[in-house]
Amino acid sequence: MSDFVQAFLNAEIALASSHLLWIGLVQTMLLALMTVPLGMVAGLLMAVLSTRKTRWVRWPLVAFIDFFRAIPPLVLLIFLYAALPFGGIDLGAWGSVALAFLLNTGAYYAEILRAGIESVPKGQPEAARALGLRPWQVWIFVVLPQAVRNVLPDLISNTLEVVKLTSIASVVAVPELLYQARQAQSITYNATPIMVAAVIYFLLLWPCVRLLSRLENRQIAGRR
């Protein structure tokens, strides 16, 4: 047992590597804070456009959303980082990560929000228009609030995945939490920094997981 503690739960090494892990945590939070709002806005725009009846608008969007939901984000990130420079486009590590995450998360948010929009009874927008509301008012005050409420657990679940997704940025040497933990491990020859990083991820995401469970239980109770 002492060997396990020494190799994975060494307090001295955890303290010594805390500054590296702090830098990684800040980078992880910056990635998440950048990706989630941008992905949400892009997803909302695509979701609204994908509900249009015009085929030349809807079908390209559906193909775009399906493509970026299907392609593994790690493959997409490596392609943007390593292949685009051959075409004269060098986004750098941060730019490649930002674009890869935006394309991937935007596609997932778009599909979730599209499902939410389609779950709103058609009679409600029609009634709102009959009352004199303009189209943009119908969307903002009638359709979108109900759509978001109907798919809120899915939105929170996808946001959790986005935070966990930030760990793949280590592949292109963006100094997020996992990258810094691996750097600390290579310096100390000890797995404790990796364990500390896992604990940090847990502390970050566990409140959201509990909130997600409560929302799902509330939705189930509401259907009964």
UniProtKB/TrEMBL annotation:
The chain crosses the membrane at residues 20-49, 61-85, 187-209. Its main location: membrane. It is found in: Cell inner membrane; Cell membrane. Keywords: Amino-acid transport, Cell membrane, Membrane, Transmembrane, Transmembrane helix, Transport. It comes from the Bacteria. PROSITE patterns: ABC_TM1. The keyword Metal-binding does not apply. Residues 25-213 form the ABC transmembrane type-1 domain. It is a multi-pass membrane protein. Part of the binding-protein-dependent transport system for glutamine; probably responsible for the translocation of the substrate across the membrane. Belongs to the binding-protein-dependent transport system permease family. HisMQ subfamily. This is Amino acid ABC transporter permease. It comes from Falsiroseomonas oleicola.
